[in-house]
């Protein structure tokens, strides 16, 4: 958008009465000019988008050629950087909320919105979309203090606004009290006005969250690569345990069974630390976000811990479990052998996480 005060809107709405009302409400709004183009179905709207840029789409979810969330998805997938405000009836509000979660900037219930609310939603949607990717630290924000010809930015409620064009912020100072280049959230909380005074200014980014001492320590600890180190021990012991068991079973050399027992104890201890370090790494590096790969790794970590714990408990309760061939000894061998495919799959999904 070239100028937030001259907004080009594409309205995709099949009801002529609703379209006329929206045009009238925006025409009466003071403080911004809205150029509204109207198309009455999705196909015509998509063709208009292909013909040239617009600043925002007002999108009805129920059209002659498209219904529900698919209507939003078609526009959003085609032009993902375009801000979209969804128009919905009361019966489609759940779908509208889903659209917002999927990337729409806002939704409005038809018949329940005023011209002021409509204009405000449009202008905020454009400002949010154009500025949503640029993070600012508090130190970086200080550089935009409006002095000596520098731009003047202020932060409020996590958003960073460009107030350079405001006559009220001459030389980066407002009313002799507030300076640009800072976060004004707490100051504006005590002021007689709120965020509406920033409505006409472009959002140029978001205020980056500042790390706490605990978060900084966690990030530094993650750089030590504790999980890759620890998980190799548990994997090695999980492989060695069934191999030593089989060597004892076929050779009857006692030292092999003793070695298997020690491998089992070491595997139990290291798998706990390996699992905990994996959760720690997931939280720090991937912010605890879930997907299929992480879910599968968590599942197989649980299975490995269960198999090792069951084997250790069984071996402690019955030290002579492998002394004679029988159902119980074969079951014990099978339980230990089951660790092999589990650690293989753990390695597979771990590699997919790292290299995908």
Walk me through the structure.
With 356 residues, the chain is of the alpha/beta class. The chain folds into three domains: 6-127, Response regulator (Rossmann fold, 3-Layer(aba) Sandwich), CATH 3.40.50; 135-207, Roll (Flavocytochrome B2, Chain A, domain 1); 215-355. 54% of the residues lie in helices and 14% in strands. It has helices at residues 16-28, 42-51, 69-78, 93-101, 115-131, 138-142, 185-189, 213-222, 226-251, 254-286, 292-317, 327-337, 339-355; strands at residues 6-12, 33-39, 56-60, 62-63, 66-67, 84-88, 106-109, 135-136, 153-156, 159-162, 173-174, 178-179, 203-207. Strands 2-1-3-6-7 form a five-stranded parallel beta sheet, with helices on both faces. The chain has a four-stranded mixed beta sheet with strand order 8-13-10-9. A two-stranded antiparallel sheet has the order 4-5. Helix 11 (292-317) runs antiparallel to helix 13. The longest helix has 33 residues, at 254-286.
Short summary of the structure?
The chain contains 13 helices and 13 strands. The protein has 356 residues and is of the alpha/beta class.
Total strands: 13
Q: Report the portion of residues in β strands.
A: 5-15%
- Quaternary status: single chain
Mean pLDDT: 85
Sheet with most strands: 5 strands, parallel
Major beta sheet, strand line-up: 2-1-3-6-7
- The parts where pLDDT drops under 50 for at least 5 residues are none
Order of helices and strands: EHEHEEEHEHEHEHEEEEHEHHHHHH
Overall 3D form = elongated
The rounded Rg comes to: 31 Å
């Amino acid at each position: 958008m070239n100028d937030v005060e001259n907004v080009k809107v594409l309205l995709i709405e099949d009801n002529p009465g609703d379209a006329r009302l929206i045009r009238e409400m925006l025409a009466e709004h003071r403080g911004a000019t809205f150029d509204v183009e109207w198309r009455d179905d999705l196909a015509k709207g998509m063709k208009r988008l292909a013909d040239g840029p617009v600043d925002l789409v007002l999108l009805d979810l129920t059209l002659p050629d498209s219904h529900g969330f698919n209507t939003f998805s078609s526009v959003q997938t085609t032009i993902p950087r375009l801000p979209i405000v969804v128009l919905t009836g009361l019966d489609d509000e759940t779908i509208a909320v889903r659209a917002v979660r999927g990337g729409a900037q806002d939704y409005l219930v038809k018949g329940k919105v005023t011209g002021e609310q409509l204009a405000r939603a449009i202008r905020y949607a454009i400002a949010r979309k154009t500025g949503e990717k640029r993070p600012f630290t508090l130190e970086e924000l200080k550089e935009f203090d409006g002095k000596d010809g520098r731009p003047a930015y202020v932060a409020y409620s996590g958003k960073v606004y460009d107030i350079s064009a405001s006559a009220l912020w001459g030389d980066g100072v407002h009313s002799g009290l507030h300076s640009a280049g800072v976060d004004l959230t707490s100051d504006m909380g005590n002021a007689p006005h709120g965020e509406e005074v920033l409505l006409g200014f472009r959002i140029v980014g978001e205020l980056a969250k500042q790390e706490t001492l605990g978060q900084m320590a966690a990030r530094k600890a993650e750089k030590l690569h504790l999980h890759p180190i620890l998980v190799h021990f548990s994997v090695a012991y999980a492989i060695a345990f069934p191999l030593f068991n089989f060597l004892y079973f076929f050779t009857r050399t006692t030292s092999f069974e003793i070695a298997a027992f020690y491998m089992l104890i070491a595997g139990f201890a290291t798998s706990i630390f390996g699992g905990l370090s994996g959760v720690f790494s997931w939280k720090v590096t991937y912010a605890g976000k879930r997907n299929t790969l992480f879910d599968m790794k968590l599942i197989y970590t649980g299975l490995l811990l269960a198999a090792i714990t069951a084997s250790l408990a069984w071996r402690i309760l019955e030290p002579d479990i492998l002394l004679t061939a029988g159902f119980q000894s074969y079951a014990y061998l099978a339980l230990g052998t089951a660790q092999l495919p589990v650690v293989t799959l753990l390695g597979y999904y771990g590699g997919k996480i790292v290299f995908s």
